[in-house]
Amino acid sequence: GQQLNQSPQSMFIQEGEDVSMNCTSSSIFNTWLWYKQDPGEGPVLLIALYKAGELTSNGRLTAQFGTTRKDSFLNISASIPSDVGIYFCAGSNTGNQFYFGTGTSLTVIP
Amino acid sequence: KAGVTQTPRYLIKTRGQQVTLSCSPISGHRSVSWYQQTPGQGLQFLFEYFSETQRNKGNFPGRFSGRQFSNSRSEMNVSTLELGDSALYLCASSPGTGRTEAFFGQGTRLTVV
User: Does B48 contact A95 at a Cβ distance shorter than 8 Å?
Assistant: First the structure.
């Protein structure tokens, strides 16, 4: 199945720093979702985007639906240790059939 | 509101056996999707059920099947297990209409030996 290109693959940052990651696809999507997954657990929905150019925030997290509808971006401001985990983007143009990114592993150094 | 419940959490099966996994969606949600997560292939869509009907299907062999009951609970079955079927199987619950958003359960970790 189709996989989205997500970058960077991993990040090691100092506590308090800002984080940026992005996701690109060869296909146009109508919906972009961003998730965080901890080891051995299911992904937790962070932000949902439904319109090209849309910018949505959830606390320290901000995500954008790219204007080409083929990309999306996630920013985390002032990172804290509990931000550690793997972040996934997911895109859909057909109901609830989502294609997932390869994941960005985030490590926050106190 | 209770979240998505998947049972069992862990399962060990032998090659050639079959297995059934269960998912109870969020109350009021009518869509249940199943995903397979492996280190090599990442998260891959298996199929989606809405109102007891399969609405979308991914590129998995016919050994993978599912169904949905009138109360929206869903089961996934894998027959003739192969070593490569070892994975975390995740169920996602969605309203099914209106805006698309998917809430995942904790998953079932299947190990095939």
Answer: yes
